[in-house]
Specification:
With about 300 residues, this protein is mostly helical. It has helices at about 20-25, 30-45, 50-75, 75-80, 85-105, 110-120, 120-135, 140-155, 160-165, 170-190, 200-225, 230-260, 260-265, 265-285, 290-305. About 75% of the residues lie in helices and about 0% in strands. The longest helix has 29 residues, at about 230-260.
Length: about 300
């Protein structure tokens, strides 16, 4: 790897691939891992209560993380106590809102819509970072922001401007929009809020914060009579989300970013809605409409322009 000390032993090879070669392969696998959450949300929307699904998904994810992070968290327990407010807020946004709201949305909108609306999150990240932390936005980025927001609007309106006049939107699209906004705020906070916790340990602590926030809502959902079924299928759903959409997706993302850098890794965001749309068509039988194509034609190049660094 570039910049590696000549005296340092080379990274171990997997399947005959170096870490960098493996990262290139994973770059095209990771979007499917992230898209699996949206696809599962839609496929299981009538099988599992949404808040409980988010709660158990992240509880299992934390269980998977603990063998790798428990010792580090104990070593940095003073930092965890010092940062508890940030950890709870990040957990509420990233695991609570972004988790439960997507599962609620899946009851009344398609996985394709969820993927395309979520694809605009980098645009809000740029805008929030500009407004709160004073990061600069170039004219080209401004064009990209406008394109992407127009694309999201086309998807939410389903290509019908009359929806705007009557202010009638699909409930699921609005839930997804709220989740996308929460993800943007989460991402900006994650980047700008100071922390001395190592990355994986911080992720585990944030997951714990999200579980604490979700717990009372999960109990309330259960008391209302909406309980998850104790079946093999329900256990498999939770295990799939924890292993692939949470633990696997985030670890693969970290490896790709470490090996290839931020630029190539940003391709993930461009590829997720494409993978999501194709897989929703193949697996769930969803139909791609003209407004999906119009939205994608605006959102994807808009993301590319809006996330380019000045002078790039």
């Amino acid at each position: 790897m570039a910049g590696e000390d000549s005296n340092t032993r080379p990274a171990p090879r997997l399947l005959g691939l170096s870490e960098r070669q493996l990262a290139f392969v994973l770059l095209f696998i990771a979007p499917a891992l992230f898209a699996s959450n949206m696809l599962t949300a839609r496929a299981t929307h009538d099988l599992f209560p949404p808040v409980a699904l988010a709660f158990w998904r992240w509880t299992c994810t934390l269980a998977l993380l603990m063998p790798f992070t428990a010792a580090t968290l104990w070593q940095h327990r003073a930092a965890v106590l010092h940062e508890w407010r940030d950890l709870l807020v990040l957990g509420a946004l990233g695991m609570g809102v972004c988790g439960a709201f997507v599962y609620i949305a899946a009851d009344t909108t398609t996985a394709t819509n969820i993927g395309l609306i979520y694809a605009a999150s980098p645009i809000l990240i740029v805008l929030i970072a500009r407004m709160v932390y004073g990061e600069t936005v170039s004219p080209l980025q401004a064009v990209g922001i406008a394109l992407s927001l127009t694309g999201v609007l086309a998807i939410i309106c389903r290509g019908d401007l009359g929806v705007l006049a009557n202010l009638q939107f699909a409930d699921g699209d609005l839930w997804t929009l709220a989740a996308m906004i929460a993800w943007a705020v989460y991402s900006v906070m994650l980047r700008h809020r100071p922390s001395i916790l190592p990355l994986m340990a911080r992720f585990a602590a944030i997951s714990g914060g999200g579980i604490l926030i979700l717990l009372p809502f999960t109990v309330a959902e259960g008391l209302s009579g909406d309980l998850p079924p104790l079946t093999t299928t329900s256990f498999l759903i939770v295990a799939f989300l924890a292993v692939f959409a949470s633990f696997g997706a985030y670890q693969v993302y970290a490896l790709v970013q470490r090996s290839l850098g931020a630029g190539p890794t940003s391709l993930l965001m461009y590829l997720i809605p494409l993978y999501n749309g194709v897989l929703a068509f193949l697996i769930l039988g969803e139909t791609l409409q003209l407004y999906h194509l119009l939205g994608a034609a605006l959102v994807l190049p808009g993301i590319y322009l809006a996330t380019r660094k000045a002078g790039a």
